[in-house]
Write a sequence for this structure.
């Protein structure tokens, strides 16, 4: 990437963040959202909240401190911004900026639905349990979710997602994370299913038959 291309990419990132920033309310969480986005795109090995917070302080010319790390953790866990509103804005960006590139593409916009697992080492993440992890091809301590990705010639975007809560999360006595659902299912629940008509406002941009499962159900 040339210097000019890098500068153009930085300008685009600032513009994109400006579109989402109002969804985070006050100036402090808006700034944390910017630091978090910058931390995600840095190609420096394992990403952590601590590294993101401290790098953000360094770039802003501020002292690195544990207070910066705790503030970033609070933004991700307790700050009262709406995940669903952010997701809807992502869907809107997909429709406005990526869908037009399908005008000469016979299949239109393609929706790829896939289940994916994320290995965890602790017990406190919502939905974590020993269950089949597709990424590892075996039973692991992990979280499992289902994801809908919109694909166009110009790029792709995560349009919807849903976390799978194993039945044992409603049967075993344990301290419940703040965002764990309070209701209990009547029977073991299968992994959730997403379709282009599952509630997101860009569903009309999928042509009939253009939804592709990434793999066959087990």
């Amino acid at each position: 990437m040339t210097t000019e291309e890098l500068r153009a990419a930085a300008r685009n990132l600032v513009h994109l963040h400006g579109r989402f920033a109002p969804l985070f309310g006050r100036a402090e969480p808006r700034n944390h959202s910017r630091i978090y986005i910058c931390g995600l795109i840095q190609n420096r090995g394992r990403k952590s909240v601590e590294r993101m917070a401290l790098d953000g302080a360094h770039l802003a010319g501020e002292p690195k401190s544990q207070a910066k790390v705790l503030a970033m953790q609070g933004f991700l866990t307790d700050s009262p911004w709406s995940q669903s509103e952010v997701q809807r804005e992502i869907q809107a960006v997909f429709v406005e900026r990526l869908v037009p590139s399908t005008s000469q593409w016979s299949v239109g916009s393609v929706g790829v639905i896939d289940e994916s697992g994320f290995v965890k080492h602790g017990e406190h993440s919502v939905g974590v349990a020993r269950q089949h992890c597709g990424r590892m091809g075996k039973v692991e301590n992990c979280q499992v979710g289902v994801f809908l990705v919109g694909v166009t010639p110009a790029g792709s975007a995560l349009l919807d997602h849903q976390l799978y809560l194993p039945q044992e999360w409603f049967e075993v006595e344990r301290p419940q994370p703040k965002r764990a659902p309070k209701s209990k299912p009547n029977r073991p629940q299968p992994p959730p299913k997403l379709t282009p008509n599952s509630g997101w406002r860009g569903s009309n941009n999928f042509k009939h038959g253009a939804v592709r499962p990434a793999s066959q159900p087990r």
